[in-house]
């Protein structure tokens, strides 16, 4: 790619004309502009690659194929290890193909959009309030030249990111989620990546076997009122900059009991709060962690009739923060102002 | 809380309880706050021990964790010894050993960084202190035949009480990852979903 650009350099030098287009990697970009470019590239670019994701003590490896035709995003994700599992996306329609008895069948049936479809799709300008964005030279990932971008928290209430973005396209080649001391909690990295090559129909077709189980889902956003169900719970303490993104009443996957769900975000990090009636069995002040994701359970007792509720906070936030949030969840009575 | 009940809980946590004992502990726990408290602490210690570990829907947690816990040395020194996933169970631990071990959980080098979480029932100030734990393995090395070499080979037979919690946490983690990926998007949330699914 560098060689391909050489003539442009020569041309501009010879003619004395500075050629600078928005997609030229030679332009000095701000960190925010790099993030914007990354977002656009995730959607607009065709690519085919293999990436690994390390979290906790587990390493997953997947192949991803993405293209866009007539404004419709198409994507296919293939788990390369363990039980065969594929996710195929065509616009808003998502199909999950797996083997019978796969654990996920018993869990929630929603599947998110593709990994690169809406990456960091936030207003990056707002990030600077709680994060410092800075560029740190270049590196090489998946045999491609990458710029390094650090998104570091300004306080101890959230984690940071180190990103490696493709110098040509802005695609995310590697990311590290790091805690305040710089310890890597999660690592995502492409091993191979082809950008802009032809994507065939076969590349986007799942290899389903005779026994495969398929489940269909839609990514189309649901009605706004469904997203904001009245929830009589709130957090009395929140880390700085986190605001409620949604609230809803949902059902537990196993028992279909109602669960009040609150979700908060600071524009980059997010956590969810789940409040349910105290279960009859299996109750504990749970502290679980997988990579950067922590789950913390606490019991609250201020609901009417002194009934006990189990609060579970799940998110990519430091454990003490999650615990403090969980301990601050309170019931708001109906007639409260 | 009777000695017999303590023994039963100890057995449950130690993967040595039979179905009757598990049922009895479950039943008692619904009415006995002290038992619940003790149990919660055991859960916590275990969660902490697995702080960087992953959840698993099969709930092999109990077996896996406690199979890594040596019953410590006879001198009564508080210690938990990583035995490389080996099913090392010399004997059922003495009840009195629990408190000491909880107070001074030490992790072998197999677990790079463990955290000890200290909190009381009404303690708002949560202490999160990284521990540097170096434990000389004093116990006998388990014979290779006794080890579960892969995660899915761990016997999850006595794991009934734990799996409820773990499954709830896992379901919520998956739900959270889904939600984040849907509303926020992004590589990391999505891949996280993939990771939770595969566990």
Set out the fold topology.
The complex is a heterodimer of chains A (337) and B (199).
Chain A: H1 2-15, H2 31-44, E1 47-55, E2 58-69, E3 72-79, E4 85-90, E5 93-98, E6 131-141, E7 144-153, E8 160-166, E9 172-178, E10 184-195, E11 213-218, H3 224-227, E12 233-235, E13 243-251, E14 258-265, E15 270-277, E16 287-290, E17 293-300, E18 309-315, H4 319-327, E19 329-331
Antiparallel strand pairs in A: 1-2, 1-10, 2-3, 3-4, 4-5, 5-11, 6-7, 7-8, 8-9, 9-10, 12-19, 13-14, 14-15, 15-18, 16-17, 17-18
Chain B: H1 3-13, H2 19-31, H3 33-49, H4 61-67, H5 97-103, E1 114-118, E2 127-131, H6 160-183, H7 187-197
Antiparallel strand pairs in B: 1-2
What does this structure look like?
The complex is a heterodimer of chains A (337) and B (199). Helix content of chain A is 12%, strand content 43%. Chain A has 337 residues and is mainly beta. Chain A has 2 domains: 31-216, outer membrane lipoprotein receptor (LolB), chain A (Clam), CATH 2.50.20.10; 222-331, Phosphorylase Kinase, domain 1. In chain A, the strands form 3 sheets. An 11-stranded antiparallel sheet of chain A has the order 6-7-8-9-10-1-2-3-4-5-11. In chain A, strands 13-14-15-18-17-16 form a 6-stranded antiparallel sheet, with helices on one face. In chain A, strands 12-19 form a two-stranded antiparallel sheet. Chain A is globular. In chain A, 40% of the residues are buried. With 199 residues, chain B is mainly α. Chain B has a two-stranded antiparallel sheet with strand order 1-2. In chain B, strand 1 (114-118) and strand 2 form a beta hairpin. In chain B, helix 2 packs across helix 3 (33-49) and helix 6 packs antiparallel against helix 7. In chain B, 44% of the residues are buried. Chains A and B meet through strand 1, strand 2, strand 9, strand 13 and strand 14 of A and helix 3, helix 6 and helix 7 of B.
